[in-house]
Amino acid sequence: MTFVAAGAFSLSFAASMMSVASAKERVDDKYAPREVVLYQYDACPFCNKVKAFLDYHDIPYKVVEVNPVGKKEIKWSDYKKVPVLVVDGEQLNDSTEIISTLQQRIHGDSTDATSSASDEEEKWRRWVDNHLVHLLSPNIYRTPKEALEAFDYLTTSGNFSTMERVTGKYIGATAMFFIGKRLKKRHNITDERASLYEAAEEWVKALDNRTFMGGSKPNLADLAVFGVLRPIQHLQTGKDMTASTHIGKWYSNMEEAVGPSSRLQDKPLRTTLDKPMNV
Ligand SMILES: N[C@@H](CCC(=O)N[C@@H](CS)C(=O)NCC(=O)O)C(=O)O
């Protein structure tokens, strides 16, 4: 490759990177929340959906890792699930509600950002909550080996002592293996991998050759799909899905667009025992 050709290549490469990287959406200072605290389980798909939204909009947030056994960190709350987001002192519950409220707020409330969302965007956000998310647990806990891998991986991000991690691992993985089977039955899934691949292809088809469903920038449906898939990306399930479907390109575009975490502390604040996602 000549110097000129190499230069042209790196310029076009930089331009192509910029087209996705510059997709990140910043919030006008006027509407930016002052203090945001996320109560979460690190590997929970719903929590990751909220994080994808906050990261994409560069909204700084503190994280409080909730101990799922006692949930003492959210003792003050009547709502007992995570995520809970406290925005300038106001409690918001439920990932989809949280995101809709934030979306409206960062657009200055005057624009009804939620009602201006397209039917397509709303339809796929619902698809994430009613369909995609239910495919995760049956997949990541599919076999004893995968259950161990998932339990190990997901709890590494929790607040475990080495002792808790080692002793809890086999019991936890066994429990999750059976819970995965129960959830599979509850959601009428016959072949969990086939259903996941089908869902990934369904999503790619819905993209209809667009970079994102939102066009040149991700919309709330893109952020929701990306958020719930993020915790499984390094697990066997995530690797299989990337290898067996066409979702990889969109996923890496999303990684680029969402960019680094805007979380204020490097590591989430931890308490004691954690548990993996159970959806
Ligand atoms: N619809 C809720 C679902 C939240 C949810 O089910 N979160 C799980 C964690 S992944 C939870 O808190 N489960 C109750 C528990 O762990 O006791 C949302 O979108 O935020």
From TrEMBL:
Domain GST C-terminal: residue ranges: 143-277
Matching PROSITE patterns: GLUTAREDOXIN_1, GLUTAREDOXIN_2, GST_CTER, GST_NTER
Ranges of residues in domain GST N-terminal: 34-110
Gene3D superfamilies according to UniProt: 1.20.1050.10, Glutaredoxin
EC supergroup of this enzyme: isomerase
CDD domains (alphabetical): GST_C_mPGES2, GST_N_mPGES2
Primary localisation category: membrane
Reaction equation(s) it catalyzes: prostaglandin H2 = prostaglandin E2; prostaglandin H2 = (12S)-hydroxy-(5Z,8E,10E)-heptadecatrienoate + malonaldehyde
EC number(s) stated in the UniProt entry for this protein: 5.3.99.3
Compartments where found: Endomembrane system
Keyword Transmembrane helix: yes
Signal peptide stretch: 1-23
Basic and acidic residues bias (residue ranges): 264-273
Region listing for Disordered, in residue ranges: 258-279
InterPro entries given in the database record: GLR_AS, Glutathione-S-Trfase_C-like, Glutathione-S-Trfase_C_sf, Glutathione_S-Trfase, Glutathione_S-Trfase_N, GST_C, PGES2, PGES2_C
Pathways per UniProt: Lipid metabolism; prostaglandin biosynthesis
Keywords: Fatty acid biosynthesis, Fatty acid metabolism, Isomerase, Lipid biosynthesis, Lipid metabolism, Membrane, Prostaglandin biosynthesis, Prostaglandin metabolism, Signal, Transmembrane, Transmembrane helix
Membrane topology: Single-pass membrane protein
Recorded family membership: Belongs to the GST superfamily.
Protein name: Prostaglandin E synthase 2
Annotated source species: Sphagnum jensenii
Organism taxonomic ancestry: Eukaryota, Viridiplantae, Streptophyta, Embryophyta, Bryophyta
